[in-house]
Amino acid sequence: MTDVKALARAEAFARRAVAFAAGQGQAAEILADFLADQKGKVLSGYMPMRTEIDPLPAMAAHQGPVGVPVIIAKATPLRFREWSPGAKLVEGAFKAMIPEEGIWVEPQVLIVPMLAFDARGYGFYDRTLEGLRAKGPVLAVGFAFAAQEVAEVPIDVFDQRLDAVVTEKGVTVFA
């Protein structure tokens, strides 16, 4: 499975790079509209890296606490530090930008950065979502370019199904 996932990831990175070059259109506005009914809940977004689609406008529009993932150690669940627009950021593990300070938050809603996703609602994500869902309901919203959709994402025991995917072309909710 590791080789299958590695090949799928490499192909997904290439597909995402092409989509990134074309621009994200109204994706952040679509995402903010989709999340509007999550007011007051703890939202986790992410600081976009390389060719990831940018969720920052939707995160800034959220009416409630917002966090971003912090990598504590390789192959461990992420933790989430409170973020707000203008927060001082520092480089964390794997060059991910994280708030220099802030309280730890437990998200109820996650904006999940995607490499690829499929019509079943799977994307490349790991034990973090599994651990959060073990504690209670968590809405997981993949955020990607429409071109990142593939026929089937290879999954393993850690992968969790998304509740929805938002792209520049709209929203898909998985029942």
Characteristic key phrases:
175 residues, alpha/beta, Rossmann fold, eight-stranded mixed sheet
Instruction: Indicate the mean pLDDT.
Output: 91
The DSSP helix count reads 4
Strand percent estimate: 15-25%
Shape field: globular
- Name the helicity range: 25-40%
Number of beta-strand segments: 10
Sheet with most strands? 8 strands, mixed
Q: What is the count of structural domains? A: 1
The CATH top-level class label: Alpha Beta
CATH H level: which superfamily?
NagB/RpiA/CoA transferase-like
Which architecture does the CATH hierarchy give at level 2?
3-Layer(aba) Sandwich
Given the helix and strand composition, which structural class is it? alpha/beta
What distance separates the N and C termini?
A: 27 Å
Radius of gyration: 15 Å
Strand order of the largest sheet: 6-3-2-1-7-8-9-10
- N-to-C order of helices and strands: HHEHEEEEEEHEEE
Low-confidence stretches: none
Can you tell me the CATH topology? Rossmann fold
Can you describe what's shown?
The chain has 175 residues and is an alpha/beta fold. The chain has a single domain (2-173), classed as Rossmann fold (3-Layer(aba) Sandwich). 26% of the residues lie in helices and 21% in strands. It has four helices and ten strands; from the N terminus they run H-H-E-H-E-E-E-E-E-E-H-E-E-E. The protein has helices spanning 2-22, 27-35, 56-61, 127-135, and strands spanning 43-44, 66-70, 79-82, 89-91, 97-99, 104-105, 109-113, 139-143, 164-167, 170-173. It has an eight-stranded mixed sheet with strand order 6-3-2-1-7-8-9-10, covered by helices on one side. A two-stranded antiparallel sheet has the order 4-5. The radius of gyration is 15 Å and the shape is globular. The two termini are 27 Å apart. The model has no long low-confidence stretch (mean pLDDT 91).
